[in-house]
Structure formats: C-alpha cells, structure tokens
C-alpha cells in the first residue's frame, strides 16, 4: 500500500505527510485552507497532492488529524463512503487547548467514538501518544528509535499501520484493541505524551 490520504492540514497532518512522503508514500492532503493555500502547502511538504476531504478519504489508508470538536462535522458527510479503508485516528479528545481541557468520554476510548462515526472503516489509533515536539525531532535519538503505539480491532489493519510507522523509521508497538489500547495512549492515559525510546537490545524509555 503506497497511497495515504490525510484529513487535516495542521501541525499533525503536515508532520505525518512529510515523513510519509520521505518514506516513499504518495500523499493526498485535505484541509479547510483555501485551495490556493493548500496547493502551496502541499508543494512545501515535499510533493503531496492537495485534494478535497472526499479525495483523501477515498484512498486505502487515511489519517484523521483534525481537532476533536471538528470530528463529527468532518466525518458526517463520509458516513456512507467507507469501504473497509484503514482510518488512522491521530486525534486526542481536547475540547480546548488554552487551557487544556479533555472531553468527557464516560470512560470510553476516544477512537471507539470515532469508529462509530465512520461505519465501514477499520479504525486504528496511532500517532497521538507522542507530543508533536518530540515527533518532529524524527525517529532517531542516537542509536535509539522513538516508539509509536498502534491500537485497533483489526489485526491486518494494525499490521499495515505498523508497517507505515516502521517505514518512517519509528518503532511500532502493538497495544491491544481500540478500546483498551486506545485509552492507554490517548490524552489522559498513562502513555500519553511520553517520549519512549528503544535501542538495540534495550527496553528502556525516558
């Protein structure tokens, strides 16, 4: 699988796009920017293709990288469009950032909530546990590689997302299903925001 759609042209979407392109993936990026601005951004990312949200969502693997309050608005028009595509949920359930405030999820996994809004997609949680400040440092720190977690209910989809992460140079670690693993790595969970590094023969992080 070489094509990747990215819904969201903010900091997270841009960072993933750059690394995916460097790893040899063809990227279509969509966002709310005016078409001319999105075209310029796509070129700056190293050769992404600008597109509408439906263009990005039509690909076999799609990254959702929008703000939590915008998810329903973005996914609602696509509710009949999913045909077993992999939808990578890279979001975190912040309703505001200044000050940081998490949504009330009643103990649910945020990604399980996303999955209900994307019927027919295979939702996988990834790219959300590490801060963007650490993610954009790149996959390597000396001889160690940064860890990104992968959680989902579909083993084949988890494997494909893990392969994307490894192609980018990071270390992918499978972390259970969408509900259990998702809650561990999403904002507010015990693994959220941690910069975990693994070297050869090492199992230590910081």
TrEMBL record:
Keywords: Oxidoreductase. It comes from Rhizosaccharibacter radicis. It holds the Pfam family F420_oxidored. This is NAD(P)-binding domain-containing protein. Residues 4-93 form the Pyrroline-5-carboxylate reductase catalytic N-terminal domain. The keyword DNA repair does not apply.
């Amino acid at each position: 699988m070489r094509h990747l759609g990215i819904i969201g042209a903010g900091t997270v979407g841009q960072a993933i796009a750059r690394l995916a392109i460097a790893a040899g993936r063809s990227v279509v990026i969509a966002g709310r920017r005016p078409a001319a601005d999105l075209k310029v951004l796509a070129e700056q990312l190293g050769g992404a293709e600008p597109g509408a949200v439906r263009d990005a969502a039509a690909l076999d693997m799609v990254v959702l990288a929008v703000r939590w309050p915008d998810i329903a608005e973005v996914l609602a028009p696509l509710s009949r469009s999913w045909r077993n595509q992999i939808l990578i949920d890279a979001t975190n359930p912040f309703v505001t950032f200044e000050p940081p405030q998490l949504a009330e999820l009643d103990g649910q996994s945020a990604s399980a909530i996303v999955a209900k809004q994307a019927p027919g997609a295979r939702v996988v949680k990834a790219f959300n546990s590490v801060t963007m400040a650490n993610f954009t440092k790149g996959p390597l720190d000396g001889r160690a590689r940064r860890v990104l977690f992968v959680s989902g209910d579909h083993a084949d989809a988890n494997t494909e997302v893990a392969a994307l992460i490894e192609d980018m140079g990071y270390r992918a670690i499978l972390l259970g299903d969408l509900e259990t693993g998702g809650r561990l790595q999403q904002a507010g969970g015990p693994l959220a925001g941690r910069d975990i590094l693994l070297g050869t023969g090492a199992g230590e992080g910081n």
